[in-house]
Design goal:
Elements (H helix, E strand, L loop, with lengths): L3 E6 L4 H9 L4 E4 L11 H10 L4 E4 L6 H6 L1 H19 L6 E5 L23 H13 L5 E6 L1 E2 L8 E3 L3 E2 L2 E2 H13 L4 E5 L4 E2 H8 L4 E3 L19 H13 L1
Parallel strand pairs: 1-2, 1-3, 3-4, 4-5, 5-10, 6-9, 7-12
Antiparallel strand pairs: 8-11
Helix pairs in contact: 1-6, 2-4, 4-5
Length: about 250
């Protein structure tokens, strides 16, 4: 792995920072600012890829706020969908490129939960649709890994109430950061759900913030854009984790 050049898009975001905090060994890591690399500017992107010989990509950059995507769908499409298409096109010049794409649990209908990677994808938000469009683009790269996930920062939960009737497989950001780098090194190709066991948002957040108070989706003004149950079947993910443990 020594000597490979890794590009991390969105390195200034929460997940990008966490990946860097945990450390990337044996690689030349590129972490361009938005001014250096704007994925919505195709010419700028192509010029960047001509400047550097890039072997691996962790594509984190996205408009991840469900509310912002609903309020400005054009911007969400330009960044999450078209921006991803641009970087896929630019990276395709190197047929051996390893492309790790951070997707979301919101590509699923988010009604019944326990979703497998092979289950129907039917987003119910603009955010989910734009991330699904990104997935479709990334699948054009032969050596791709699409990570469907949802994460939170246990040390920074900026609200005091959480839903008792909304379920997910959210995982701590530190655990996801480690998982992303492991999947970068792994030979796995395809789509994988990366998360923890199913919990209600209230049940999950109260572990880390004991003063958390219960709430319900029906009390939320944005209830139509809330996931009832976006939890994963994580059996494939558990198999990979077990394989990594055996190699230690």
């Amino acid at each position: 792995m020594d000597g490979k050049t890794l590009l991390i898009t969105g390195a200034s975001g929460k997940l990008g920072k966490e990946i860097l905090r945990q450390g990337i060994k044996g690689r030349n890591v590129l972490i361009p600012s938005h001014q250096e690399l704007d994925i919505t500017d195709k010419k700028s992107l192509m010029d960047y890829f001509k400047k550097y010989s890039i072997d691996e990509i962790i594509h984190c950059v996205a408009i991840a706020s469900v509310l912002k995507c609903e309020q400005d769908p054009s911007n969400a499409i330009e960044t999450n969908a078209l921006g991803t298409a641009h970087i896929v096109e630019a990276s395709s010049a190197n047929p051996k490129t390893r492309f790790v794409y951070i997707s979301t649990d919101y590509v699923y209908p988010c009604v019944n939960g326990n979703y497998k990677e092979t289950d129907e994808v039917r987003p119910f938000t603009v955010y989910g649709w734009t991330k699904l469009a990104g997935e479709i683009c990334v699948k054009k790269i032969k050596n791709h890994c699409i990570i469907r996930t949802s994460f939170f920062d246990p040390d920074n939960i900026p609200f005091d109430t959480a839903f008792t009737d909304s379920f997910s497989s959210k995982m701590p950001i530190a655990k996801l950061g480690s998982s992303v780098t492991q999947l970068l090194d792994d030979a796995f190709i395809g789509v994988i759900n990366v998360g923890d066991e199913r919990k209600s948002l209230y049940e999950l957040y109260k572990i880390h913030k004991p003063q958390m108070k219960p709430d319900t989706i029906f009390n939320s003004l944005a209830q139509m854009k809330r996931a009832k149950d976006s939890s994963f079947d994580i059996s494939l993910w558990r198999k990979l984790e077990a394989k990594w443990q055996l190699k230690k």
